Amino acid sequence: MNTPIKNIRKMLVTQALPYANAPLHLGHILEAVQTDIWTRFQNHNGNICHFFCADDTHGTPVMLKAKELGVDPEDLIDEVFKDHKSTYELYGIQFANFYSTHSNENKEYSEYIYKCAKENNLISKMNIDQLYDENEKMFLSDRFVSGTCPKCRAEHQNGDNCGVCGASYNVLDVIDPVSIISNTTPIKKKTEHIFFDLPQKSEMLKDFIKKVNLQESVKNKLSEWLNDDLKKWDISRDPPYFGFMIPDEVEKYFYVWVDAPIGYLASISNWAKKNNLDMNELWSQKSDYEIHHFIGKDIAYFHGLFWPALLSSANYKLPDSINVHGFLTINGEKMSKSRGTGILAKDFVSVINPETLRYYFAAKLNNKVEDIDLNFEDYVQRINSDIVGKYLNIASRSASFIKKNNNLLSKNINQDILDSLLNKKDEIVDLYDSKQYSKLIRIIMDLADDVNKFINDETPWKKDINEAIDISSTALNAFKILSIYLHPVIPNITKDAFEFLNLKKFTLNDVDVNLNKKINTYKPLLNRLEKIIIPEEEDMDNTNIINIDHFSAVDLRVARIVEACDVEEADKLLQLRLDIGELGTRNVFAGIKSAYKPEDLKDRLVVLVNNLEPRKMKFGISEGMVLASSNDNGIYLVSPDEGAEPGMKVR
Question: Is-contact 243 256, C-beta < 8 A?
Answer without folding.
Answer: yes
